[in-house]
């Protein structure tokens, strides 16, 4: 296995020199973006940087999650980094390796690792709170010839516009509010009855979609995990997914911090550089403090997730801290840049937008605050000492 620190340095150089300059074209989408993305992927393969955390037997780099953690932070400094470097499918490859059928593994896993297939994950519904999956209304019923027929609608599904496969949460038994009776099914998007309804720009950015299932037929062996046990599989996926995103948000927060510091040193005013002003120094200090505080929380969470341990508290802390840090540091960087930080010549608008959406998507701050506090207090009840 290659030296992890050397790999991290090579990934950092690739993202800085190849991905950062390509961001405007990648953000624009369309044929040009698709062609550019494939070129970046080819360069990543040629550089030995492709799919570093994915299984070696499937064509990946074979890095463990703990070894990949610092690379994930570096790679995630750009939203396009994971896709360009082949690690964007890590969640789906992990989930399907553990819970997919033999056919699903043989047919899809090698092509996911190679980048020939693209996936998305659909849980949230237009009229159902994303924090309450037990209220899911999308249904999967037994088809006349076996398998399942899926009917329902999902929204805020990342990357659904060009996905080949979608993992959908649907009710296969019970009634609304039951935590049992929910299942995950892997649906090829070319199936009759599947439709992309519309794109849902988030603060002006593309990449989120509303999708519909109108009696889509799904083979029995495309059930992910056991029928009725979706929340266990989804919970496992969410712990890893939230931690990976937190690592990538740290990478983007570090990028915003570097931009802030470079601007403070380089920008000259009538009274000298911005770096000489106390309020600018306060922005630097508060940003550094936020980064140094969040980073250990995120890496602690990843160590527990990688070790297969319960990490609900640590993941909740990490996700919330990283999202807040990205938004706060990007906001301070915009303030130091002034009007230039609001325009198209820096990545700061995109970094701020990601930070702001991070505090809602994948579980809002309030959910994590309540969940973490509830678990901490529950653990104290059994050991509480009654005052004399």
UniProtKB/TrEMBL annotation:
In this protein, which residues make up the domain named Acyl-CoA oxidase/dehydrogenase middle? 120-216
Entry keyword annotation includes Lipoprotein: no
| SUPFAM superfamilies with a match to the protein in the record | Acyl-CoA dehydrogenase C-terminal domain-like, Acyl-CoA dehydrogenase NM domain-like
Q: Which UniProt keywords apply?
A: FAD, Flavoprotein, Oxidoreductase
Q: Which Pfam families match?
A: Acyl-CoA_dh_1, Acyl-CoA_dh_M, Acyl-CoA_dh_N
Query: What are the residue boundaries of the Acyl-CoA dehydrogenase/oxidase C-terminal domain, all occurrences included?
Result: 232-377
Which residue ranges are recorded for the region named Disordered? Answer: 124-145
Highest taxon of source: Bacteria
Q: What does this protein need as cofactor? A: FAD
InterPro entries for the chain: Acyl-CoA_dehydrogenase (IPR050741), Acyl-CoA_Oxase/DH_mid-dom (IPR006091), Acyl-CoA_Oxase/DH_mid-dom_sf (IPR046373), AcylCo_DH-like_C (IPR036250), AcylCo_DH/oxidase_C (IPR009075), AcylCoA_DH/ox_N (IPR013786), AcylCoA_DH/ox_N_sf (IPR037069), AcylCoA_DH/oxidase_NM_dom_sf (IPR009100)
Residues forming the Acyl-CoA dehydrogenase/oxidase N-terminal domain are: 5-116
Q: How does it assemble?
A: Homodimer.
Similarity comment: family membership: Belongs to the acyl-CoA dehydrogenase family.
| Protein name listed in UniProt | Acyl-CoA dehydrogenase family protein
Organism, scientific name: Streptomyces tanashiensis
């Amino acid at each position: 296995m290659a030296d992890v620190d050397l790999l991290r340095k090579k990934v950092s150089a690739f993202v800085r020199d190849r991905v950062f300059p390509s961001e405007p074209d990648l953000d624009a989408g369309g044929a040009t973006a698709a062609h550019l993305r494939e070129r970046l992927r080819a360069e990543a393969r040629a550089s030995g940087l492709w799919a570093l955390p994915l299984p070696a037997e499937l064509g990946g780099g074979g890095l463990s999650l703990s070894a990949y953690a610092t690379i994930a932070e570096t790679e995630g400094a750009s939203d396009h980094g994971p896709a360009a470097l082949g690690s964007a499918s890590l969640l789906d490859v992990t989930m399907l390796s553990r819970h997919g059928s033999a056919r699903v593994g043989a047919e899809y896993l090698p092509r996911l690792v190679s980048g020939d297939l693209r996936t998305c994950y659909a849980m949230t519904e237009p009229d159902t709170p994303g924090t309450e999956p037990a209220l899911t209304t999308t249904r999967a019923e037994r088809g006349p010839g076996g398998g399942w027929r899926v009917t329902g609608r999902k929204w805020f599904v990342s990357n659904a516009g060009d996905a080949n496969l979608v993992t959908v949460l649907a009710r296969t038994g019970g009634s609304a509010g039951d935590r049992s009776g929910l299942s995950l099914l892997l649906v090829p998007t070319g199936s009759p009855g599947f439709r992309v309804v519309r794109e849902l720009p988030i603060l002006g950015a593309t990449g989120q979609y509303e999708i519909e299932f109108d009696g889509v037929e799904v083979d029995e062996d495309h059930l992910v995990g056991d029928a009725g046990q979706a929340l266990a599989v989804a919970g496992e996926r969410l712990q890893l997914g939230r931690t990976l995103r937190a690592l990538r948000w740290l990478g983007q927060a570090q990028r915003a911090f570097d931009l802030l510091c470079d601007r403070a040193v380089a920008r000259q005013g009538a009274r000298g550089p911005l770096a000489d002003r106390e309020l600018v120094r306060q922005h630097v200090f508060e940003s550094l403090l936020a980064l140094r505080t969040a980073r250990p929380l995120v890496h602690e969470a990843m160590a527990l997730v990688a070790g297969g341990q319960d990490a609900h508290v640590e993941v909740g802390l990490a996700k919330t801290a990283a999202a807040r840090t990205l938004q706060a540091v990007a906001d301070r960087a915009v303030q130091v840049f002034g009007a230039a930080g609001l325009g198209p010549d820096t990545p700061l608008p995109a970094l701020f937008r990601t930070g702001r959406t991070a505090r809602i998507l994948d579980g809002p701050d309030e959910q994590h605050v309540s969940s973490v506090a509830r678990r901490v207090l529950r653990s104290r009840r059994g050991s509480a000492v009654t005052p004399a």
